[in-house]
Specification:
Blueprint (H helix, E strand, L loop, with lengths): L3 E6 L1 H4 L7 H10 L5 E7 L3 H12 L4 E5 L10 H9 L3 E3 L1 H8 L9 H8 E3 L3 E3 L7 E4 L2 E4 L3 H14 L6 E8 L3 H14 L4 E6 L17 E7 L2 H18 L2 E9 L6 E4 L4 E3 L5
Parallel strand pairs: 1-2, 1-3, 3-8
Antiparallel strand pairs: 4-5, 6-7, 7-8, 9-11, 9-12, 10-11, 13-14
Helix pairs in contact: 2-7, 3-4, 5-6
């Protein structure tokens, strides 16, 4: 089973001047396709930091997506970091240059910005479905813009190109107990079922409020994640019986979500194929 990592680039994000809003969208979008996020790094607008993060993550996960730092100003240095990471020269990319010059706003006054954004690592691939803002790809690393409106459009395009993978199964119980009240019960069950992922999460008022929080003083969500539907439903049934007997069960839910179990390798004009990743 493989997974992906994110690199979030930006001094303003780390300084708290800009609220990061792309990560949750990425998680939800790629979960729906069957991919799971394994690690996130937030780095400054610094070539060494970005390059170091890419170097580490691309060797550990199926693929890496970065967002931020691909604009027209001097502090947009993500492409320089990609060049540094992969040992590539920075050259004018004619595909990017032509595409930018065709934009209605392209003018002599913006020629410097076009030149800057067209200077890319040698050999980089541009994925441009429907002539939208490109996704930049080198090996198993994909660079996206950081501006949320554009990021979401490019990620949606990316999600349409990658295959849907087999997802894990997820279920949850909501119980009227503190975590400490049932910690031994849950630890015992987890030890007997090591193939499951079990976790508990206290819920504060407003976090998942659909009315029942007003009726119960305490509420904790117990999460079950399993590779098969049978394992998930059996565990939900067993734990449901245990907490019903304790008189603390509030409600349950079950759904599917994604886990990445394919590796992105090749890109052409219409699809991203999965295969054994060459690292």
């Amino acid at each position: 089973m493989t997974s992906y990592a994110c690199v979030i680039v930006g001094d303003e994000i780390l300084a708290g001047k800009v609220r990061e809003s792309n990560l949750v969208y990425a998680i939800n979008t790629l979960n729906a396709k069957g991919y799971t996020l394994a690690e996130v790094r937030m780095v400054r607008d610094d070539i060494e930091q970005i390059s170091s993060a890419l170097t580490s993550l691309k060797a550990s996960y199926g693929f890496v997506i970065s967002f931020g730092g691909v604009g027209p100003t001097h502090d947009d240095i993500t492409m320089k970091a990609y060049a540094h990471c992969f040992g590539k020269a920075l050259i004018r990319n004619e595909v990017m240059y032509t595409w930018l010059m065709q934009k209605p706003r392209a003018s002599k006054s913006e020629k410097a910005a076009v030149d800057y954004m067209s200077t890319l690592p040698e050999g980089i691939e541009l994925i441009q479905p429907d002539n939208k803002w490109p996704i930049f790809k080198i090996e198993n690393c994909f660079a996206f813009p950081g501006l949320p409106s554009i990021f979401r459009k490019t990620l949606d395009s990316f999600a349409q190109l990658i295959p849907t993978e087999q997802g894990e199964y997820y279920a949850a119980l909501f119980v009227n107990e503190r975590e400490g009240d049932f910690s031994l019960l849950l630890a015992t069950y987890a030890k007997a079922h090591p193939q499951l992922k079990l976790g508990s999460y206290p819920i504060e008022s407003g976090m998942e409020d659909d009315g029942f929080l007003q009726e119960h003083r305490y509420c904790t969500r117990i999460a079950i994640t399993a590779q098969s539907e049978t394992e998930c439903s059996d565990s939900l049934h067993t734990l449901k019986k245990k907490f019903t007997a304790r008189g603390t069960l509030i409600k349950t839910l079950i759904e599917t979500h994604g886990v990445a179990n394919a590796r992105i390798l090749d890109v052409d004009a219409t699809t991203i194929r999965t295969d054994t990743l060459q690292k």
